[in-house]
Design brief:
This protein is α/β, with parallel strands linked by helices and about 180 residues long. The chain folds into 2 domains: about 70 residues, no CATH class; about 100 residues, Metalloproteases ("zincins"), catalytic domain (Zincin-like, 2-Layer Sandwich). It is built from 6 helices and 7 strands; from the N terminus they run ββββαααβββααα. The strands form 2 sheets. It has a 4-stranded mixed β-sheet with strand order 1-2-4-3. It has a 3-stranded mixed β-sheet with strand order 5-7-6, covered by helices on one side. Zinc ion binds next to α4.
């Protein structure tokens, strides 16, 4: 069983296992932080452990992400599948929260190997598509694309109504878009 603990703003996926000591990893390609810990170790001890390694973790996340950004195209089919799985996990974790917060809803979503767009929305069915390229982008950038496509479920084009909803739900979204060159 895995649960997410937020430690000073850092999301850490914690799994209890039959192991002897705490094991911390930074996952490729998105820099997700995971901790495996023995059953007897308390959450408080895990929090202290993560805090003691925070500098190393922050550097590691930057390193993993810049490596992924330097190789936006997965080199092997295995790596591509790993990226797809990791992105699916991230979307599954973030999209319901954004739906709840905004009241917007999609009918379903798919990760696709799209190269020209970050996402798309079928306004007739309410189905969203997300590009595999998002696997190497930050959580904030992913949230922006999820929100962008969710807004399209109620506003098709990029007119005044579209911008009004973006402003309401993600002030500062233009900066994120600039980073994505969307
Ligand atoms: Zn759009």
């Amino acid at each position: 069983m895995t649960k997410t603990i937020y430690i000073d703003g850092l999301a850490v996926a914690v799994t209890r296992k039959r192991i002897k000591r705490i094991n911390l990893r930074i996952r490729e390609p998105e820099g997700r932080v995971t901790v495996s810990a023995p059953y007897i170790v308390s959450d408080r001890e895990i929090i202290e452990f993560v805090r003691s390694k925070r500098d190393w973790i922050d550097k590691g996340i930057v390193c993993v992400r810049s490596r992924a950004a330097a190789h936006p195209e997965p080199v092997t089919p295995q790596e591509k599948e790993a990226r797809r799985a990791a992105l699916r996990r991230r979307i599954a974790a973030r999209l319901p929260e954004i739906e709840r917060r905004t009241g917007l809803k999609c009918t379903g979503w798919t990760v696709r190997d799209m190269h020209t767009r970050w996402g798309s929305c079928n306004t007739r069915t309410g189905h969203l598509n997300f590009s595999l390229m998002l696997a190497v982008r930050t959580d904030l950038e992913l949230d922006y694309v999820i929100l962008h496509e969710l807004v399209h479920t109620v506003v098709p084009g990029h007119g005044k109504d579209f911008y009004a909803l973006m402003d309401r739900f993600m002030p500062g979204w233009k900066n994120v878009r600039t980073g994505l060159k969307y």
